[in-house]
Every structure is written in C-alpha cells, then in structure tokens.
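Sorry to interrupt, but I need a hand with the structure work. Leave the record below and I will have a look:
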Amino acid sequence: MTSIVLIRHGAYNEGQVDGAGPHVDLGLSDEGKLQAQALADRLRLGKEIHADALYASTLPRARQTADILAPALGLSAVLEQDLEEWRSDDGTMDTNEFTTLWQSLSERDRQFHRFAPGCETTIEFSARVQSALHAIVKKHLGQTAVLVVHGGVIQVAFQYFFGYGDAAFRRAYPAVGYTSITHWNLPMNTSKWVLESSNDRHHLRRSA
C-alpha cells in the first residue's frame, strides 16, 4: 500500500517586515500554533499515521507546522520548494487590487494570466505541483509519505490523483481547512487511487 497524506498548515500571519517591503508569509499565528499542536497530539496519541517520510513546503507557515508535527511522527521534515503555494504575485499587490484584476478576467484567461513578472500562471502552478507529487509517489511506493502543504496544493492534488481538469473546479472544489488531513491510498496491484478522507479536522473539534 502506498499512502500520501496531505496536511494543510495552520492559520498564519501575512504582512510587511518592520512595516516595509512586500507582503510576505510571517509564519504561524498563535491560533495556528494551537491548531498544529492539536494535530500533533492527535497523531502522537492515536498513532493513526505511521509515516516513512515527512515533506514540507519551504514557506514559513508550512515549515513551522511541520516542525510541530515532526516529533509526533518521529521524523524530520524534508523541505521541498515545489510544494509551495501558487506563486501568484510578488507581494506588492494588495488583496483588493488582486481581486479586482482576477474578477475582470474570464475563467479561461485566468489560467494563463501572469499577475506579476517572474510569477507563475495557474497552469504552471498545477504542472509544478503535479510533477512534485509524482516524484514523491514514485520515490515512496509501498510507503507512507506525509506532506505539509497549502490549500492550493491540496486542490491540485485532486487533479493529480483523480485526473481532474481545471474545468472541474468551476463547478465545485474540495474544502481544505487549516491543519486538515487529506489521505490518499494506492492499494497493491492496482493503478487506482482511493480517497480515504478529506478535510479531516476532528482534532480541532476536540480542542474547541
């Protein structure tokens, strides 16, 4: 059995460093740290995931979440740039400006629009993440790999495992809450993946 367990990072802060420069990921908020610890407690006490490898996006919110989970899994995180969230802008565009531009584009044009020089389109983002997932799957056949990533990465994972095209997400898309677990299995002697669970956040309900 091959298992890929996708965990979204906890809640985080975003803003300028010392009030200057572009908006960047400032790491987990206090709430996010509590969310990650609740999941770590669940993994340690429940022993439901016996991981062979732990990967994390290099962005602070994912890296810090992985650091909290690592002792519960008995592993150190391997940082992987290709598991980062969509590199949609360079941090100089505020949310309202981005949203206005996004809404001005047709659904088709959004896939190919580059919102800032050096950043990627959604098509490029999907290709990057699916390539990273495929490499990890190939490396860990017969094992369990845990990936601490982002909401967008988990949505792209549905494209990879189910073979969805972009059009599917114009009708519906998977919910991905902070520190949620989305678990895929590939049974032996088959090429069909099984979605065991999605957006599992029971640890947050218990800690509420």
User: Anything to note?
Assistant: Residues 122-139 form the longest helix (18 residues).
